Amino acid sequence: MKVSLLLIVLLAVAVSHCSAQILARKAFTGGPVIAKQSSNVEILIVNLGDEPVYDVRVVDNTWGSDWVVNGSASAHYAELPAGHKIVHVYQVTPQAAFGYVNIPPAQVLFKEEGEDEPDFILSSSLLRQPVYQSTYYSRVYSMSIENWGVYAALSAASVLPSFLVWYYYQSSFENGIKKRS
User: Fold this and answer.
1) Smallest Cα–Cα separation from 27: which of 88, 79, 81?
2) Residue 46: is its pLDDT beyond 70?
3) What does pLDDT average to over the chain?
4) pTM (two decimals)
5) What gap in Å lies between CA 43 and CA 107, rounded to an integer?
6) CA distances from 106 to 8, 45, 103, 121, 125 (A)
7) What are the angstrom distances between the C-alpha of 42 and each of 17, 29, 85, 147?
């Protein structure tokens, strides 16, 4: 009991001395991922700590041969001040529709002040990311003739009664007085 309590206290002291608290998130931005179309990948790095970190490197070499990387998937930043963020964006193009894929996390390396060896964290990974075929995506998510027909019918059903009342009063009254037939 005393040993476990001592270990918890030592762990709490060790964690409290860490001034850098870096979070990283990897995400697709700008809509769905469609085969043979470029999609933006955004890696967001946030320093939640009290001290800046230096020599921040983003390394994202997790894309296989089925993906074409447009731009640099790796980046280097000299400093990330406390309370600030860095956003690194590049594009990837899937060569085929895979269904659902798991995209591994990116690696973020950084150094705290006075340290020679870099620390690293992994970004969030993209689990079960759908990669659509363009014909499937347009068929499922685009408006079809039936959708436009339903839209027109419902619009007419909501506007038509008001229009008929207005037309009746315009044709039956003049200056607020009923017209004589």
Assistant:
1) 88
2) yes
3) 86
4) 0.67
5) 10
6) 31, 11, 9, 9, 8
7) 30, 7, 12, 34
pLDDT digits (tens, 9 = 90+) for 66-80: 999 999 999 999 999
Q: What is the pLDDT of residues 86-130, one digit of tens each?
A: 999 999 999 988 888 888 999 999 999 888 899 989 998 887 888
Q: What is the pLDDT of residue 23?
A: 94
CA dihedral over 13, 16, 18, 19, signed as positive or negative: negative
Q: Which tokens hold the place of 127?
A: 């689990």
CA 159 – CA 142 distance, rounded (Å): 25
Residue found under tokens 């690293």: 120
> What single string gives the DSSP state of each residue in the chain?
-HHHHHHHHHHHHHHHT----EEEEEEEESS-EETTS-EEEEEEEEE-SSS-EEEEEEE-----TTEEEES-S-EEEEEE-TT-EEEEEEEEEESS--EEEEEPPPEEEEEETT-SSPEEEEPPPEEEEEEE-HHHHHHHHS--HHHHHHHHHHHHHHHHHHHHHHHHHHHHEETTEEPP-
Q: Which two tokens stand for residue 32?
A: 């769905």
Q: How far apart are CA 101 and CA 110, in angstroms?
A: 29
